[in-house]
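Whiteboard transcription, Tuesday session. T.W. wrote the structure tokens on the left side:
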């Protein structure tokens, strides 16, 4: 049995199928960890979601910012774009959305020595905090009517964690950290605007650090798998593993085996840029 992790798919169904064939994925034997952003922008988002739903017993998914946007579109909070509309209009839309909103923001395995979140783990969170706060917002999203909570989540959020803030402000920070984070300042304050590639030995953006290089970052105990950062691309330093290699932008879709001593990337080249 193999345990594979795959980066942001974002509706690139053909590339996903090509990659699964290349790694000889067997849904009856193997497990897939998927680092979020299953949909949006890619031209076959519905096909991706239907396929992953069909093998749901063989996968572990964490939600990304584009997945949250899809759920918000289903509830009428956001206007769906051309790549999301087929999901909203599909006969099984409610079944797919209900499955998606019951997916976690964090998964982990002590046996594999990995945990996974779409954007990573806030430098202000240790392992216990990450587990507790991911569960907190999962319960909100899984409520019978998550629409009022989702409306609040799309309002501007705090960039630093404050346990004394209001419940909504805390939730907005948690959601943003798990799904949108890239850079932070030395004290852990997040920056949600810079999207470029950092020069890891010499910072490209003065005063900003990749979240995983934050000087005040707390220990997460386990190595962290994440996506969300296509300009960073494949990156493994023994502590964090980035798997967003920009398939949507005409680059590659990447998988690694987590049950090996050292992850080795397996990639397929995307044939073309998807609709954006």
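and on the right, the sequence the group agreed on:
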């Amino acid at each position: 049995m193999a345990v594979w992790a795959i980066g942001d798919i974002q509706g690139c169904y053909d590339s996903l199928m090509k990659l699964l064939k290349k790694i000889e994925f067997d849904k009856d034997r193997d497990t897939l960890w998927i680092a979020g952003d299953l949909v949006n922008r890619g031209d076959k988002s519905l096909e991706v979601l239907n396929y992953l739903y069909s093998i749901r017993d063989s996968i572990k998914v964490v939600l990304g910012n584009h997945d949250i946007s899809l759920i918000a579109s289903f509830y009428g909070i956001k206007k769906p774009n051309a790549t999301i509309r087929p999901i909203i209009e599909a006969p099984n839309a409610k079944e797919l959305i209900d499955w998606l909103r019951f997916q976690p923001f964090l998964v982990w395995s002590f046996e594999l020595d990995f945990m996974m979140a779409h954007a990573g783990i806030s430098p202000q969170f240790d392992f216990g905090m990450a587990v507790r706060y991911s569960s907190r917002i999962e319960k909100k999203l899984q409520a019978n009517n998550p629409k009022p909570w989702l409306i609040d989540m799309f309002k501007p959020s705090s960039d630093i964690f404050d346990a004394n803030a209001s419940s909504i402000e805390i939730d907005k920070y948690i959601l943003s950290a798990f799904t949108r984070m890239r850079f932070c300042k030395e004290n852990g304050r997040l920056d949600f605007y810079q999207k470029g590639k950092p020069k890891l030995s010499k910072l490209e953006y003065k005063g900003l650090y990749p979240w995983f290089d934050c000087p005040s970052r707390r220990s997460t105990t386990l190595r962290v798998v994440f996506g969300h950062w296509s300009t960073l691309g494949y990156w493994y330093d023994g502590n964090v593993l980035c798997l967003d290699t920009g398939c949507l932008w005409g680059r590659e879709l990447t998988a690694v085996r987590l049950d090996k001593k050292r992850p080795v990337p397996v990639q397929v080249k995307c044939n073309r840029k998807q609709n954006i």
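Someone added at the bottom: The two ends are 36 Å apart (CA to CA).
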